Amino acid sequence: MNDPSADLALQKQQLRERLRFRRKHFAANLDAMARLAAFRIVPQPLAERLTGRDPVAAYVAWGDEPDIVPMLAAYPLALPHHGDRSDAMSFCRWTPGEALAKGPWGTEQPCEPSGPVEPALIFCPLVGFDRQGNRLGQGGGHYDRYFADHPAIPRIGVGWSVQEVDALPAEPADMPLDAVLTEQEFIICGETL
């Protein structure tokens, strides 16, 4: 008899491979003007929620992920941080231009974290998404665990439009997004925004 969780894990891994391929080729073929124009303006429903006092959780783009730091540079920012591989993810304040260090998972994070902060909004990278708010991440579950521990914080996935699929397989631990931002549109998925 087949293990349904193993089948779901295999489905997700195959989707990750296909969607990473799409993302890589899409980003590689963007011309310079399109790249400069993408992800530079905060969508109005989000701008209304940003006070300028509370930090906004962002991320440092890795590889062909969309770079959202320029779009959010006017706001206080926080980046994901891991003390080591066994630590839960937290967010620590960071200002563009401050030094970054490789974290235990290879992502850029603040060198000298100021201590965890709770962001007003969370912008998170993704590998895939659907319009129901399902997000396919890298597979570590770091964002899902943070989302589960902080369910009131709005969650906005960020990706290229080619990363959209009709439906993603979801498990009970997969936390849905409230919205998705692509270079083409702002998609509201939940009722929190």
UniProtKB/TrEMBL annotation:
Q: What is its EC number?
A: 6.3.3.2
Listed binding positions for ATP are: 12-16, 135-143
Annotated positions binding substrate:
60, 65
Q: Which reaction does it catalyse?
A: (6S)-5-formyl-5,6,7,8-tetrahydrofolate + ATP = (6R)-5,10-methenyltetrahydrofolate + ADP + phosphate
Name its co-factor(s): Mg(2+)
GO: which molecular function terms? Answer: 5-formyltetrahydrofolate cyclo-ligase activity; ATP binding; metal ion binding
Pfam families per UniProt = 5-FTHF_cyc-lig
* Keywords linked to the UniProt accession: ATP-binding, Ligase, Magnesium, Metal-binding, Nucleotide-binding
One GO BP on record is:
folic acid-containing compound biosynthetic process
The record's annotation in InterPro entries points to: FTHF_cligase (IPR002698), FTHF_cligase-like_sf (IPR024185), NagB/RpiA_transferase-like (IPR037171)
Record-stated family? Belongs to the 5-formyltetrahydrofolate cyclo-ligase family.
Return the protein name: 5-formyltetrahydrofolate cyclo-ligase
Please name the source species: Sphingopyxis indica
